[in-house]
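Example noted here:
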Amino acid sequence: MTKPHLFRGFRTSPEIIRLAVMMYIRFPLSLRNVEDLLHERGIEVSYETIRFWWHRFGPIFASEIRKRRIGSMRSSRWQWHLDEVFVKINGETHYLWRAVDHEGEVLESVVTKTRDKKAALKFMKKLMKRHGKPDRVVTDELRSYGAAMKVIGNADRQRTARWMNNRAENSHQPFRRRERAMLRFRRMRSLQKFASVHASVYNHFNQERGLSSRHIFKANRAAALAEWRGLCAN
């Protein structure tokens, strides 16, 4: 249940806080870019204030979005696409594991230092704990997936083929754009936090623009924005 005192003690209105957090997470903007855009609207806040708002409220907004969407995502169990990308943290390679369903909904994001069987198993257990078991799992040819699926009894549901996992590979693009705007990450914990929050915000505003008419797209976009403005309302 939302706490009524969530914004208590803040001199800035909740509407401005939600706007700043949305702009920073949703679009490939730096903190200073968001500060400049707010200044053009007559809102004077520093980029350090926006950083504080994002750290304080970003995970809360993302959690509320997940709670609202999780009940209507039963169809996402039909087919999952799993993939991992390399992410540099202070010059050291880490791996961001991501799962999306057949409609492009980001289901889970997990950061690990390796991409072996243990890491794949950790990722898949967390994924299934929240979303249940899928009918089919599409992966690349990384052997860690097959080894992990044998442990959890999903080996017969795995599918690997050329071009078959494009859905997961394309889903990395919005996150990569955000990574470049943030000049990469400095801590594994920061990467995990931002990846999880970014996934929820991306899901909320992703309207699959190319699959609907302009009229329907505008209506869905307006509904998503109205729902965002109502997050954690007092």
About this structure: The CA atoms of residues 188 and 233 lie 31 Å apart. The chain has a mean pLDDT of 88. The helical segments are 14-26, 31-40, 47-70, 117-131, 143-152, 166-181, 188-205, 214-229.
